[in-house]
């Protein structure tokens, strides 16, 4: 992502406690600041695990606190389908029929939808933490910012997925595969089924792709990373879980998270004491006798 440096640096500052120095002695040995970050940029493992778990728990809690309104969610679904019909973007039904006509494709799509959303995102986070610690904090914070914007969408626009509408088929229920919704025979619903706009599957898949493409050297790795959000988009529609516009909104959430970083970076540059020069001057003043 060209010009990503300023935005990612700003997002990193968002994650740092206010007023905390950027470097300092590490009492355990090695360079680390009082905020627990080593010179490489890697936060302490235990605190990072706690932060990620707490943030994910809050995400699920807030997502499931969205008041259920099936009538409004279905109304929004038909509004969305009508808009897609007018703009010739209504591809969900054909993809859903394609999956239903080929059981291996549907089963693979169900498991892809239920597992890759978490496995790939966690895998990229762990890889960044171990291999690229200097990038980890800002990229992780971008993921968090994108997810918060997604939560806002869930509250503002509850949406019934296609599988709840006449004519569409729930592939999990049809083929007896595993899922996270009430329609799955082997699992009870653990997530708000009307939290579909934007698609966090697509947001997180695009985040993975952006991170990998930004650091990978091999063209084949970059190509596979770019393919991942495309496969995710096909899977979410083929299994009857999302509309194409959900995917578009998911991409928009990631873009807005990035834009938020740019905007905050511009604001920090003009606020007294928030620029790098201002912080350096403040440190010199505090060190003066």
Core attributes:
289 residues, mainly alpha, 11 helices, globular
Walk me through the structure:
With 289 residues, the chain is mainly alpha-helical. It has one domain. 66% of the residues lie in helices and 0% in strands. The protein contains eleven helices and no strands. About 12% of the residues have low confidence.
N- to C-terminal separation?
45 Å
Total count of helical runs of at least 4 residues: 11
Integer average pLDDT: 80
Helix/strand/pairing class, anyone? mainly alpha
Overall domain count:
1
Shape: globular
Stretches where pLDDT falls below 50 for ≥5 residues? 9-36, 184-189
Provide the succession of SSEs.
HHHHHHHHHHH
Sheet of most strands: none
Q: Give the strand content.
A: under 5%
Percentage of helical residues? 55-70%
Radius of gyration: 22 Å
Annotation, overall tally of beta strands: 0
